[in-house]
């Protein structure tokens, strides 16, 4: 999903940078998000906060859910 229309920055780009340890200011400088009209700043900051290294692992895994929508890999079957 495009978060910043002015700079065509997606939520995936923002979260990828945040998971790499970049702060909102770093991401803003790198991607240009929230540098024009500013309408996207709140949403972009929320994404960075959710993906920062201090966020619980479960939250990060939920955002990395596979294409099938599952947040967790399937359990091995008990044979
Ligand atoms: S929508 Fe991001 S600066 Fe305008």
Features:
79 residues, Arc Repressor Mutant, subunit A, binds FE2/S2 (inorganic) cluster, mainly alpha, two-stranded antiparallel ribbon, single chain, elongated, 44% helix, 4 helices
CATH superfamily: BFD-like [2Fe-2S]-binding domain
Shape: elongated
Assign the CATH class: Mainly Alpha
Count the E strands. 2
Count of separate DSSP helical elements? 4
Mean pLDDT: 83
CATH-defined fold name: Arc Repressor Mutant, subunit A
Distance between the termini: 41 Å
Helix content: 40-55%
List ligands, each type once.
FE2/S2 (inorganic) cluster
Give the SSE order as H and E letters: EEHHHH
Query: How do the strands line up in the largest sheet?
Result: 1-2
Q: How would a crystallographer describe the biggest sheet? A: 2 strands, antiparallel
Instruction: Estimate the strand proportion.
Output: 5-15%
Domain unit count: 1
SSE layout:
Elements: E1 2-4, E2 9-10, H1 11-19, H2 24-31, H3 41-51, H4 57-63
The protein binds FE2/S2 (inorganic) cluster (FES).
